[in-house]
């Protein structure tokens, strides 16, 4: 087994001016409904409206309609959406890497997240396309075969399920809620902060009765954006919680997305340090999809939210930097990601299924090939057939 490695350390080599960043722009979207059935379009788009405080996030836990995400869905929904866009526009969505936002978050935060590991599957899917080039002699068109290479990356589903089980089995200190309960708090906060329509089309009764709604995390709105870090062109898909007002009619205009988070109240320096570390993931998730605002609901140890704080995504790295604790540095994250993706593109240079792996408490990212041919089910049959025709 040929194996290549990329050492994150020393991270000092990534210090300095930022690599070029292409501002994320939504090119299409898809939705899952309350039964987690896939639909093209924005049917599950939600709108932010502040919840009433104090808010008890424990309410309704016994009626929680929880998504079962143990099955391996690969990149199917993302590829189906890209395929629909290509059919609509007649243009291929070209990128160096196509993946979920979650995978890019793990990469972007890796320089300052030594504790956690990850495992991803990847494949280089190449389809040769015919392009017309004009001959300098008599303007005669010349047809040329041009290879179009894209690396598709997904999470290793077996690893994901193993990690979730380990987390679930963790023993919590006496008096602390379970991992499942704390996960529920986040979904409850979303439920009491969202509307199905813009606020001016929503009745007062609907706004004030959100506390009584059953929590269901099957429904999702997923944005698909085109972006870039350094020399790497990216298409990323990821869930977005809500829009602040409305999606603009013009695609050129930015969308005022909102990400919703909960966090424990900050009582001392130790709590502040933990919060700053959480801000790394908050920032990375929103930065990658172009979400400009994060609403944090600060809760006490019993799961009661007492206050809200609005954070501008772009200001978070400086906020952390000015605290002078050296918790993390956004510039280093971006420069590392730029360098790593360049290395990855040159490393995954043949067909087959590849593994991208970082062990817990390790600074080494390993890349090796598991299968010599095929795509390991990363590429859906329908997408493969479609791309072979275009």
UniProtKB/TrEMBL annotation:
Domain RAI1-like stretches: 22-126, 148-383
Family: Belongs to the DXO/Dom3Z family.
InterPro entries per UniProt: RAI1 (IPR013961), RAI1-like_fam (IPR039039)
Keywords: Hydrolase, Metal-binding, Nuclease, Nucleotide-binding, Nucleus, RNA-binding
Source species, domain of life: Eukaryota
Protein name in UniProt: Decapping nuclease
Cofactors that this protein relies on: a divalent metal cation
GO terms under cellular component: cytosol; nucleus
């Amino acid at each position: 087994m040929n194996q290549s490695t990329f050492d994150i350390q020393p991270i000092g080599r990534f210090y300095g001016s930022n690599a070029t960043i292409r501002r994320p722009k939504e090119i299409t979207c898809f939705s899952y409904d309350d039964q987690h059935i896939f639909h093209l379009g924005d049917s599950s788009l939600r709108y932010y409206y502040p919840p009433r405080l104090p808010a008890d996030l424990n309410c309704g836990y016994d009626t929680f309609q929880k998504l079962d995400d143990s099955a391996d869905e690969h990149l199917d929904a993302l590829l189906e959406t890209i395929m629909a866009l290509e059919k609509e526009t007649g243009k291929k969505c070209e990128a160096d890497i196509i993946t979920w936002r979650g995978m890019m978050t793990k990469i972007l935060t890796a320089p300052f997240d030594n504790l956690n590991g990850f495992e991803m599957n990847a494949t280089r899917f190449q389809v040769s396309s015919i392009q017309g080039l004009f001959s300098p002699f008599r303007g005669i068109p010349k047809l040329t075969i041009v290879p179009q290479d894209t690396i598709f990356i997904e999470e290793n589903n077996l690893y994901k399920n193993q990690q979730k089980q380990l987390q679930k089995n963790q023993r919590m200190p006496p008096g602390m809620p379970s991992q499942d309960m704390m996960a529920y708090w986040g979904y409850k906060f979303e439920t009491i902060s969202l509307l199905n329509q813009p606020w001016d089309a929503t009745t007062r009764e609907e706004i004030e009765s959100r506390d009584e709604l059953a929590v269901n995390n099957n429904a999702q709105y997923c944005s698909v954006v085109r972006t870039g870090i350094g020399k790497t062109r990216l298409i990323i898909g990821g869930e977005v919680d809500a829009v602040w007002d409305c999606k603009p009619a013009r695609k050129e205009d930015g969308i005022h997305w909102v990400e919703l988070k909960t966090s424990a109240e900050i009582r001392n320096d130790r709590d502040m340090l933990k919060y700053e570390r959480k801000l790394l993931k908050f920032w990375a998730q929103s930065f990658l999809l172009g979400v400009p605002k994060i609403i944090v609901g600060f809760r006490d140890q019993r799961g009661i939210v007492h206050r809200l704080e609005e954070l501008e995504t772009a200001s978070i790295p400086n906020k952390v930097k000015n605290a002078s604790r050296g918790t993390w540095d956004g510039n280093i994250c971006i420069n590392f990601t730029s360098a790593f993706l360049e290395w990855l593109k040159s490393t995954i240079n043949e067909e087959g299924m590849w593994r991208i792996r970082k062990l817990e408490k390790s600074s080494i990212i390993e890349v090796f090939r598991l299968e010599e041919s095929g795509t390991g089910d990363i590429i859906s049959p329908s997408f493969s057939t479609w791309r072979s025709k275009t």
